[in-house]
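Reminder to self: keep the SMILES exactly as supplied, no canonicalising. Ligand is magnesium ion.
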Amino acid sequence: MKIMVIRELKTIRKNDVVKIVMMGRPKVGKSSICFFLSNGYPPPPSLHPTMAFDLHSVKLENQEIILVDLSGQAGLFVAEIQEQFIKNADGIMYVVDSSEHDFSPDAQYLTYLDDVISIQVPMVFLANKQDQEGAKPPYFFERSILNTIRRNYRIYGTVAADPRGIRSGENIEKAFEWLFKTIIKKKLTSTIQITR
Ligand SMILES: Nc1nc2c(ncn2[C@@H]2O[C@H](COP(=O)(O)OP(=O)(O)OP(=O)(O)O)[C@@H](O)[C@H]2O)c(=O)[nH]1
Ligand SMILES: [Mg+2]
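Structure tokens returned for the bound complex:
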């Protein structure tokens, strides 16, 4: 019996663009996170709200990754093109503003995700704006809106753009790396061929 892993690994690394979709309500920090990941430093405070979507390219371990930054304005009523991005995603980054009070729209959003995209697709949940007063810690989300999630997920408390410039970038790369590695591992296991 021969397990053809190495050849498959090379194939994945060379040809497959990994597609990650950023989701969440308006102004939670999705574009700031994309900016940080593509540039390595925080964005200027004057970021404009995203219209429909933006695409960013990031390289990690020689692998090209496309970040699809969806506008939060549409909420659950995403246009067809946005839904196509969601359906074709290899991984999801879901972002919340941890200092908000009501997260029921996010719970609704996550249920919608379960309807649209296979639960095999991993998700990283970013409890962003941890620098703000009253920000809920990651375990708050674990106990409230994430306790029914069946997909493989991790949660990170993050700071994309601290106005004081002290904590900007906190946990962003760590969260991204977890998602990337989980996607690659999943791609590998689904392409492993066993021959006799
Ligand atoms: N205090 C604080 N502010 C942040 C953080 N991340 C982003 N912001 C600010 O939040 C505002 C909105 O950020 P965006 O990145 O544009 O949010 P978005 O989710 O892309 O918003 P839409 O495109 O409208 O969906 C900006 O003023 C950012 O500077 C953070 O971690 N802490
Ligand atoms: Mg945006």
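Points to follow up:
The longest helix spans residues 172-191.
The pocket of guanosine-5'-triphosphate (ligand 1) is lined by residues 24, 26-32, 45, 47, 49-50, 71-73, 128-129, 131-132, 159-163 (CB under 6 Å).
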